[in-house]
Amino acid sequence: MLDSQAWPEQALPLTGFTVAVTAARRREELQALLEQRGARVIAAPALRLVPLADKAELLAATKDCITVPPDVVVATTGVGFRGWMEAADGWGIAEDLLAALSGVEVLARGPKARGAVRAAGLAEDWSPPSESSSGVLEHLLRRNLTGVRIAVQLHGEPLPDFLDILRAAGADVVAVPVYRWVLPRDVGALERLVDLVAVRGLDAVVFTSAPAVASLLAMAGRRGCLTAFLDALRGHVLPVCVGPVTAAPLERQRVATIQPARSRMGALVREVVAQLPSYRSRTLLVDGHQLELRGHCAVLDGRQVTLAPAPCAVLRALADQPGRVLSRQDLLPALPGGGSDEHAVEMAVTRLRVGLGDPRLVQTVVKRGYRLACDMTY
Q1: What is the dihedral of CA 296, 297, 298, 304, to 10 degrees?
Q2: Residue at 13 is within a domain
Q3: Band of the pLDDT at 377, cuts 50, 70, 90?
Q4: What is the pLDDT of residues 158-196, one digit of tens each?
Q5: DSSP character at residue 7
Q6: Rounded CA separation 183/185 (Å)
Q7: 2 falls within a domain
């Protein structure tokens, strides 16, 4: 697909960029915020929420809290905390649980968790302004946790980084699992997203939970493209995480992430706006023309050119080494999927020249390859 149109005089900051959203909750809100800033958004929920099929572990954790009441309770989600109370009521031990939690310090991660705590007849003592697990963790780590008993209502996964850090600080941690995350019923969108990242077919992926990160990594492994997936996130597709707990599974894979100073959705979007254009755009002077690369499109003298993945990949590879001659063999790995033969490079170059509208911008150097007719980069 090749398309061109006049570039708006005041383009939105994310115009030309493709951003993937993996969130299950508040997906529409996050997508709208990114689209309002000009991004093309691919929505691929990585997970869905289901109740625990076997509540034996939850029952054991509940009885543990009744027998030896915790010093601190962490409510991470509204639906999870309500589910805990409802399960205890179903077992006929809700009054015993509430009695054990009365007078206990209650930390609520966000407003929905606060509402569930209050609905149970308890009162929260503190909530992080960031409404994030990392904010709760930072708050707890400011004190001496040696011997402090902390019950943590989980929100769909074991939260290994959160719990392990507390345990390493000396806390006695009781994990309270209420529900779990599983793959969406239709995994088609998730599979397409993994493939797009692996072939570097988009500009950024936004993560709002550690389970979503784990889900994408697992899917990449199942599809046999984990190495390509991780390589793309290490230098071509910008990974943006809402906070350090979310980023931890990527950091363990040596993938550096971008995170906002505050773990809020608005701050997350602002970080994408601040970081993505500098990460995935550059401007060159090519044969007297101003050429700007912005994600999946190019802007030539104010004219927007939307390119198909193969010609866009060739243009970006040539722009990464402005003025240098790259052989067909050099350009082959840049093609989505690595390309099949050198003829695919020739076809991509032909389509690129058609899209740019001036074949002189991409020069053929006989028996050597191709180069951008670059004057300078700025």
Answers
A1: -170
A2: no
A3: very low
A4: 566 789 999 999 999 999 999 887 888 899 999 999 999
A5: P
A6: 6
A7: no
